[in-house]
Amino acid sequence: MLIHKGFRYRAYPSLAAQAVLARWFGCARVVHNLGLDQHRMFSRKGRSFGYTKQTADLPALKAEFPWLAECFSQCLQQALKDLDHAFQCFFTGLGDYPRPWKKFEDDSLRFPQMTRTDAKTSKVVDMVALTRDGIHFPGGLGFIPVCFHRPLEGTPKHVTLQRQGRTWWVSVCCEIEITTPRPLGNDTLLKGFTGVDFGVANAYTRADGRVYAVPGETEGEAKRRLRLERRIARAVEARKAHGRINRSRREMKLRESLRALDQRVRRRRDDALHKITSDLAQNHGLIGIEDLRIATMTASARGSAEAPGRKVAQKAGLNRGLLGNAFGKFRRMLTYKAGWYGAAVVAIEPAWTSQICSECHRHPKDSPETAHLPHGRTSQAEFVCPLCGFACHADVNAARNIERLATREFLRRVDSAEYAAKPAPAKRKKTLSGLSAKPKASPDASRTRDQDPAGGRPVAARGARGVSQAKNRDVSVSRRAG
Q1: pLDDT in tens, 381-419
Q2: 216 near 208, Cβ under 8 Å?
Q3: Shortest CA distance to 137 belongs to which of 17, 246, 29?
Q4: What is the Cβ-side half-sphere exposure of residue 35, based on CA atoms within 13 angstroms?
Q5: Nearest C-alpha neighbor of 142 from the set 16, 253, 247
Q6: Is 47 helix (H, G, I), strand (E, B) or coil?
Q7: With contact defined as beta carbons under 8 Å apart, do 402 and 290 qualify?
Q8: Which of the residues 222, 349, 383, 409 has an alpha carbon 20 to 30 A from that of 459?
Q9: 137 CB-near residues (< 8 Å, 6+ apart)
Q10: pLDDT given at position 425
Q11: Which residues neighbour 324 within 8 Å (Cβ) at sequence distance 6 or greater?
Q12: Cα(252)–Cα(256) distance, integer angstroms
């Protein structure tokens, strides 16, 4: 099975290369935002602007704005391709409406073609050449030193150059052939299964009691962020007081320091998420998670002027804790890594998982005789069942419930898929005596019994087509992303 895997390295462009890349970033940003404005103003039902049509307008745009010709042409085309992909995700319900690119936030260039064929000599020439110490880029950009801290795998397909804060990064997308995992079925559980509970105090808790922590901002970084935000606010106030529009050099330096702080915290969190998801996907065949509605859970409690909210500051702190653990990114990472290692990810409804006892599988509200009793979660960290007396950590109890529900849902889906894959038995005709007569043999007895007379395809394969698709994708109870 062929997969695409990215390898990210630190790049060290010279000052001259940084100046060229800054202008190229601006060109790609202008092309992307103009394409977005074209969609907003002229796109109608039955008249759309796709990647092909907008790419055909690039020569006329370069003729009107000659400075766009400085940027490598394929980078401008890839900016329009990213816009087209964003619209496809929006129309299929996988993302929000595309937004304009912003300076210092969306600075990236993709070089999609690694080699080309020379028209004169018919030889294959490298357009993006990977060397031991760096990468040679086309379009006059030249050589950029890169720290290859780990070797590449597979065949490089395209390279992306990105600026994040004060650091520069190169991402190489490679095509790798891996061993095709076995289809999902009852044998998947032999590899092991577990449930993962999402939380704020404990980010991720496994059913066996292991807790995964996601590092966030340290106390010193939080104080530094507060100082930078206050200094930026004073700089903005002074700029408005003097009637200036452009940012001062001091304000730009402060914003650059704040972006560098954000990127350091983000890299630390992403590193922890990659380690957690790799451990879960490699060592388990089934992972049960919660299908959380993050957008609803992190909604502000501020309210309105007519109906102001209550405990707004406490809710804001809770929202920061939820968003800092990156539940959505965790689910995306776990899903694609589970496909690599032949595991299944089952997302279940999180309601009552923290209040039901994982030992007796009961809740006091299940019976009228015990409805007056409180549920077992007495505090954030303690769970004591009022029915059977079972006691454990509250997050572990929830993870055990998630494991049980996910396993039951997975077995139900596998059994229903296997039943659908079996060919239906032949029906017997009723006779006058009320007995069932055996069906007559087909005139074409030379065909095998599983052969489809219409298309020559096995009958069982028609029902198994949906089964194979269901077994090789993320087995999820809900279609909404967490």
Answers
A1: 899 988 888 899 999 999 999 999 999 999 888 887 765
A2: no
A3: 17
A4: 32
A5: 16
A6: strand
A7: yes
A8: 409
A9: 72, 111, 128, 143, 144, 159, 161
A10: 53
A11: 214, 216, 217, 269
A12: 6
